Structure formats: structure tokens, C-alpha cells
Prior knowledge:
It catalyses: pyruvate + ATP = phosphoenolpyruvate + ADP + H(+). This protein is of the alpha/beta class. Residues 309, 340, 361, 363-364 line the site of magnesium ion.
Amino acid sequence: MSRSLHIFTPSNLTFPKQPYPKPxxxxxxxxxxxxxxxISIKASTSSDxxxxxxxxxxxxxxxxxxxxxxxxxxxxxxxxxxxxxISDSSSIEVDAVTEVELKENGFRSTRxxxxxxxxxxxxxxxxxxxxxxxxxxxxxxxxxxxxxxEWHRRVIERVRRLNEExxxxxxxxxxxxxxxxxxxxxxxxSSAKAEDGEIWTFSVRAFDSHRxxxxxxxxxxxxxxxxxxxxxxxxxxxxxxxxxxxxxxxxVKCRCTDPGLMLPRANVxxxxxxSLVRERNAMLPTISSKDWLDIDFGISEGVDFIAISxxxxxxxxxxxxxxxxxxxxxxxxxxxxxxxxxxxxxxxEEIIQASDGAMVARGDLGAQIPLEQVxxxxxxxxxxxxxxxxxxxxxxxxxxxxxxYPTPTRAEVADVSEAVRQRADALMLSGESAMGQYPEKxxxxxxxxxxxIEKWWREEKCHEAMxxxxxxxxxxxxxxxxxxxxxxxxxxxxxxxxxxxxTKTGHMASLLSRCRPDCPIFAFTSTTSVRRRLNLQWGLIPxxxxxxxxxxxxxxxxxxxxxxxxxxxxxxxxxAVSDILQSIQVLTVP
Length: 590
Ligand SMILES: Nc1ncnc2c1ncn2[C@@H]1O[C@H](COP(=O)(O)OP(=O)(O)O)[C@@H](O)[C@H]1O
Ligand SMILES: C=C(OP(=O)(O)O)C(=O)O
Ligand SMILES: [K+]
Ligand SMILES: [Mg+2]
């Protein structure tokens, strides 16, 4: 690209000469000294990419200055699926919980970290699901390791009904089983206790209804051949440990060395001389034939996210994405790569680059690498995701003790706050919400710890600036990125109340979220599916709103709708950006 571009970062922006007050504890600007309403910076796109007109940045002030034009290549945002566009153009959709939060506590106190809850027997009823939505669940996760498709279908139906009837935008994430080694379902028992010194049989034989005592089935046919006498066998990443004593045909006799509770379908790994053994099971496909059927199910149910277990390479993600694209033209399902194996760590950047997001799946990850390496892996994954602009979920054992107890341990609270401090997009509950005694309480802990830690770090200004490399491939993408970086910086420096982003595909909203600004981001989008998907991303409050290409009209409409519902008020200071007309506008709410 030979043409030069004046990117309007705050440092080269010429603001009006009038002095304006430094942001103070009172963030509001007196209208007399500074009238941000009238400042508009636009990067309009020239229709001719080869135009020789030199690009220029101009800012209009008080309506009397020159208007701003910055020429660039034409932007190419794709049109979202028409099917899910809601035609009612006179309303704005936001869930009741956010509405109350904004009304009662103002913008600053809204939670930026998103919450994912695994749905299981403890939470699959409509009322329990509603309680989770009211409690702040942004995404409901169904784990295809457990339950039947019919069971999952009913959960999806209920979440849909909740969204329709109560105005929530709870997204659905389907998590595949993957083909690593795991135990069978314990013949319907909820758990099995292995005591110290007991001899248990791990067998590749399937048991119909009757499971012999102290016997568990293993799903991997090569298991009995691959293990050796003396190997150490870890259930659920070491929650229970055995030593392999003897092999008798399909049966492997093991002595329990670390007692504990084994859950149905718990993951099984075996270790030799301190290293994980990966024999033929390393050749198992990432997506098993059962997974493909589950994926077809997810596509036909129109889930919002598909999380892929035990990803080893970027190819499997690329392949799945084209499979989904060919089968679901109307919906756009995001693919989340679960980072939970040694291979996924080896190919981390390519995998994340190919995916629409990632999950730090610490349960299995901690069974594949030494536990003391999990925290640095987590930090690294969170950081790469932010740089590559992909949402990231920190998962597993965040509040494990709350499966049984109503209060978390201090260590768990510290773990949650660390993930919040790293500014991961989302935190996930697994057993705590799927089968624990206190799902709502666990969610409340995630909520209150998130809000508290976010506020603390904002006030202390402790966050280090992160280098955000260019992620887009086109010139227009670069403009959007620069706009978002500048807008977020301006929002922090000016102490604005909220950032508004008008986005058709959600991309511009994600770019803004990536900057992790101090104020919340109101993301307006015209489709319900994009609104649901944005619900996974840090700091975004997604609204469904029909809007046009006329930003002036969009802003006026948004202000009046939000004011009518008491979500903003006259005098609030807002910065608006959009991917319709690449622009930054600073406004006070009239
Ligand atoms: N759909 C379901 N049906 C029954 N039990 C479930 C379901 N989903 C989750 N669970 C229970 O919750 C526990 C924790 O869930 P999760 O972490 O997602 O699975 P896993 O323990 O297999 O990694 C599971 O071990 C299982 O006991
Ligand atoms: C989230 C995880 O995956 P799953 O619960 O499916 O094993 C994990 O291993 O941490
Ligand atoms: K899974
Ligand atoms: Mg896992």
C-alpha cells in the first residue's frame, strides 16, 4: 500500500483550542467550557481505492468548521443473515437485568467479565435456567459428554423460550465430547468412591446394565494394549490415582494409590516415568464420529458457539468452519478451540488464529501438563487471544468446592480474581452449575468478585497497556482497528460514561472490547444472533436495534429510546463509533 494514511490517534488529532477540564472524579464536562456534542471525526470511505486524492483528517467543531473526511479503501462489511433481522424498527431490546443494573447503579458498575454456566441436572429446569439468567449467566453451555441429544434439545428450547419471553440474550455453547480416553458412565451411578489400596478393574469391555463391583469401562479400544504394568493411571487429572498391577486380556487390574471420588465419564490418562503416555490414542481424531453427529445436531438447533475438545491443530478448526458454513448459511456459529492438550499448546497461535475464540480448559490441561505450569499457560493463552482479537474463556474448578459448600474457599476467590485481573472475556462454571448444590450462589460469587476486582483495578489504574497488533487483512479493517484504539483511549482520557458502537456483524464491537476501555460498551446490532454472540465478549452490553446508514438519525433514535427507559440521561457523555460510516463522534446526551 503506497498511499499514506493519516490515522487519527489522539496524539495527532487537533482538538479545538478551548481548554477543557482534565477528567476528575466528576467526569461530566460543564457544557459551557466544552461542547463535545458538536465534535465529529469521520473517516468516510472513498469509492475509488486508487483515488489519488490525498487522505485528510478534519474535525468539525460547533458545526462551523470543515467536516472531516479521511479517504481509504471501500469498507467491506458483510451483510448479516436476513432471516434473523427483526423488522420492528421502533424498539430496542436489552435484557431486564442489564436494564435494572444500568438504572440503579449507573454505567460504571456494570460487570465487564462474562459468565458461562454449564447446564446439567441441577439447572436444566425452566425456573433454574431463569434464575441463572437473572443471576448474570451470559452463555449456557451444554456438554455433549453427558446426557442425550433429546435432553440437550430440551435445554436449548428452554433457553430460547427464556430469551423470547423475558428479553434475555443468553447464548448457547455446545461442547463436544472429543476422543480422548475417558471412563464409561458408571452404569447410572452418580459417582464411585475408590479407597486407598483397593484393586479396581479398568476394562475395554462394555457393560450393559450390570457393572461388576470395582470395575469401570474405558472408551478407548487400545487401552489394555497400550498400558504397561507399573504405569500410573490418573482419573480426572489426578483426583484419583492408580498403579497398573496386571493385564488380563481386556481387563487392566489397578491398585488405588490416591483415593477419591470418580465421576461418570471422567477423563483417564496414563503416565510412565513421569511423562504422559500418548501411544496410539495420540492418533485419535479430534472430532470423533459421535462428535460429527453432535455438531450436526448443534447446527440444526442453531447453537451460537461450538466448543471443540482436545484441539491439536488449526486444520481441524478450519475444516469445521467450512463444514458449518456449507450447512448453515442462515446462521453463523462461532467455533471455540478448547486448549486442553499438549498439542494445542504447541500450535497455540495458529489454532487461536483459525478459531473464533478459545477456552482455557484447565481440567484436562492440568492432566496433560504439570499443574504448576497451568497458571502461566492460562496467562499466555489469555494474552494471545486478546492480541488476536478472539474472546477467551477461563474454565474449570474456579469454584470447585461450591459443588458441595455454599461458600467458596479463599483460594478459589483468588483464582477467580486472577482471571478477572487478566481481563479474560469470560469465566465458566462446570460442575458447580451442572450438578452442584449451589449453582446460583456460585454464579453470584463469580459476579460479585468480577465487579469488585474490575472496579479495584480500574480505580488503581493498574492495568498495563498491551501492544495490540494489527489483526485485519484489509486497509478498511486497519481503519476500524485504529478507530477503536483511538476511541477507547479518548474514552479513558475524557472519562466518558459509555462507548456506543453500531455494528452489523459484531466485528467493530469486538475490536472495541479488545481495547478493554474503562467505560462499558453499548453494542447496537440489528440481529438477535449477533447480539447473543456478543454476549461472550468483555465489556459489551449488546442491544438489538434496527438502525440505518444515517448515524445522526441512529444516535437520536438510540438516545430517545434509552432515555425513555431510564438507561441514560441528559448530560451523559458518550463516544460513538460505527462500522457503517467509519467514524468517531463525541456527544453529550441531549
Ligand atoms: N448434561 C448432563 N447430564 C448429566 N450430568 C451432567 C451433564 N452435564 C454435566 N454433568 C455433570 O457435571 C459434571 C461437570 O461437568 P463438566 O465439567 O462439563 O464435565 P466433565 O466433568 O465431564 O468435564 C460432570 O462430571 C457431570 O457429572
Ligand atoms: C472445560 C473442560 O472440558 P470438559 O469439561 O469438557 O472436560 C476442561 O477440561 O477443563
Ligand atoms: K466436553
Ligand atoms: Mg476437557
